[in-house]
Amino acid sequence: MARCSGETMSKSAGSVLILVLLVALVGGVQAEEIKKHSGSGRLGDDELTVICPRNITVDCPTKIDPEYTGRPSIRGGIGPFDTSFVNFGMKCGCEFSFMRVWIAAGAEGRCDTCLQIITVHDNVPPELNCPKDVVYECDEVGSLGRATATDNCDPRPTIRYSDSLVFQRCPWEFTTIRTWRAHDRCGNVTTCEQEIKIQDTKPPVIVCCPPDTIVCVGFDIDRLGDAIAIDNCNPRPGMTYEAARIPGQSECDYWIVRSWEFTDGCGNLAACQQRVTFRCERDFDAQARDHEGGDEGEESNDRKTGPGSLVPAELTLGSHPNPLSGATTISYALPVAGEASVEIFDIQGRKIMTLAGGHHEAGYHTVAWDGHDSENRPAVSGVYFCRLECGVRPAIFEKLVKF
């Protein structure tokens, strides 16, 4: 580049340089690489004058090279001419202005300068991609997704979200309006909404409903126990119970229908019934003997039952240890001989194991459960039910907890 002599530097150009130097000295202005452009020709002996391109505002990320922001023109002087520029005030950001000082030098050493202001701004918000709306059952909530964003200037726009909760008909059904918000370093913001719906459409599951049975007149039906239900979302489903008597031909012939209805609070219902047939004691004993294959001559009417005897007065069922981590011993007792079964059910009411079955003698029995199902697979931790059935008598249950 041709050198500029102090004698030929114009006063205006000197003023611009002094201003730029002062700004650089006080800080906050950073000089960039000096870029040089050469020209040739002889325009005459007039004083050299450089005319800057107009001040310009460009959008980020438009390039700021002279090809895009313009080049100066030269009047007067003697060529060939060298033109170069220095940038002051460049920043690393999305919106800023900086000074571009153009310097032109002629062959005879004359020089001139001019100042161009270039402003870079960003008013384009990020592009935000919202995750899709989702619907899940209250006990099967999966991935909700996450928004992504890109920006024309900010390589890492910030993404945040806020939730607005709207409850539906019950605490286990609600809709969340998730508002995603992306903003760049210049404060340009884009938003989108995602709908997350949690619903409960599954009714409670009845895991135990007392089976139909025959009892003697005067038997307390409360001893037959209640139905048991679980729900996928409500840990304590509501229960209603009714018992309706259906008259028969005589006082030795009538029924009571016991009805249970379970609700989860979201309008989902499950119900079951038990039919209890009442007979006089003489009819009940005869039916029991017929069902169990016995007759009046098989045992004495003065057979001892209850504590201290070898034959219990009623069905009994127990387990130890309970809760269990490995195996447990199931103890059960039968007041009469006959067909009996000991079975294990999971919390969903599915039979997973039969521990005992077939003909049993009256008295006390034990059987072990090793914590596996019928296919010898370890049962998962949770709640199980052991059921004892014997003839026409109502089944009884023992709750088992496995961990």
Structural description of this entry:
The chain has helices at 11-26, 66-69, 281-292, and strands at residues 35-38, 49-51, 56-59, 73-75, 82-88, 96-105, 111-121, 127-129, 134-137, 148-150, 158-167, 174-183, 189-199, 205-208, 213-216, 228-230, 238-250, 253-263, 269-279, 316-320, 328-334, 338-346, 351-356, 359-360, 363-369, 382-390, 393-402. The protein has three helices and 27 strands. The protein folds into four domains: 11-121, no CATH class; 127-199, Immunoglobulins (Immunoglobulin-like, Sandwich); 204-291, Immunoglobulin-like, CATH 2.60.40; 311-403, Sandwich (Immunoglobulin-like). The protein is rod-shaped and about 135 Å long. A hairpin with a 7-residue loop joins strand 5 and strand 6. It has 403 residues and is mainly beta. It has a five-stranded mixed sheet.
Features:
single chain; Immunoglobulin-like; five-stranded mixed β-sheet; 27 strands; rod-shaped; 403 residues; five-stranded antiparallel β-sheet; 8% helix; mainly beta; 3 helices
Q: Sheet bearing the most strands, described?
A: 5 strands, mixed
Classify the helix fraction into a percent range: under 10%
Kindly name the structural category.
mainly beta
Number of strands: 27
Radius of gyration: 47 Å
Which strand-content bin applies to the residues? over 45%
Low-confidence stretches: 8-13, 19-44, 291-309
